[in-house]
Amino acid sequence: MNNIKLIFHFLQLNVLLVEYRGFGKSESKPSEKGVKRDAEAALQYLFKCEKIDTSKIIIFGRSLGGAVAIHLAASHPNDERIKAVIVENTFTDITNMSIHLFKFVKYFKFLINLKFDSINYISKITQPILFLSGKMDTLV
């Protein structure tokens, strides 16, 4: 959360934070389809917002949010309102991450309902992309 405060105060950028269904204080159960719909709804809200310059939107996501950001940007290729995409400590897809974390999962791939197949969406993004990662991240 501290980096969001820095973005707002020092760079003087507007920030919209989204709590996906099933996360934080939001209700409902999380699902890949639902989380992607929540992100799309947030982007559509920004496109219609009269209080900001809607021609300078940057999509940012960290960890799972990175996969959502990749999908969202891939769903809007060539949209000139989206200036860039930034993803921090995200993954190529849930299955590969799970296999890396839990070696036995490769024998039970059929049990994994979430895909977040970012590796197949990334090539559809036409906006500039910044990938951030660090060796101290113990999960992704």
Q: How would you summarize this macromolecular structure in one to three sentences?
A:
InterPro entries: AB_hydrolase_1 (IPR000073), AB_hydrolase_fold (IPR029058). This protein is an alpha/beta fold.
Attribute tags:
140 residues; alpha/beta; 5 helices; globular
General description of the model:
- The structure is a single chain.
- By secondary structure, the protein is an alpha/beta fold.
- It has a single domain, classed as Alpha/Beta hydrolase fold, catalytic domain (Rossmann fold).
- The protein has helices at residues 2-10, 32-48, 64-74, 94-101, 118-121, and strands at 57-62, 82-88, 129-132.
- Strands 1-2-3 form a 3-stranded parallel β-sheet, covered by helices on one side.
- Strand 1, helix 3 (64-74) and strand 2 (82-88) form a beta-alpha-beta unit.
- Helix 2 crosses helix 3.
- One of its GO terms (cellular component) is membrane.
- This is Protein abhd13.
- Residues 12-94 form the AB hydrolase-1 domain.
- It comes from Anaeramoeba flamelloides.
- InterPro entries: AB_hydrolase_1, AB_hydrolase_fold.
Quick one: CATH superfamily? Answer: Alpha/Beta hydrolase fold, catalytic domain
Q: Remind me, CATH topology? A: Rossmann fold
Give the biggest beta sheet: 3 strands, parallel
Overall pLDDT score: 85
Query: Which second-level CATH architecture applies?
Result: 3-Layer(aba) Sandwich
Oligomer: single chain
- Helix- and strand-based class? alpha/beta
In percent terms, what proportion of residues is strand? Answer: 5-15%
Q: Kindly, what is the distance between the CA atoms of the first and last residues, rounded to a whole number of angstroms?
A: 18 Å
- The percent range for helix content is 25-40%
Question: Total domains, how many?
Answer: 1
- Order of the strands making up the biggest sheet: 1-2-3
**H/I helix tally:** 5
What would you call the shape? globular
Q: Which blocks of ≥5 consecutive residues have pLDDT under 50?
A: none
Radius of gyration: 16 Å
How many β-strands, per DSSP? Answer: 3
Order of helices and strands: HHEHEHHE
Q: Tell me, what is the CATH class?
A: Alpha Beta
Pfam families: Abhydrolase_1 (PF00561)
Protein name: Protein abhd13
InterPro entries: AB_hydrolase_1 (IPR000073), AB_hydrolase_fold (IPR029058)
Domain AB hydrolase-1: 12-94
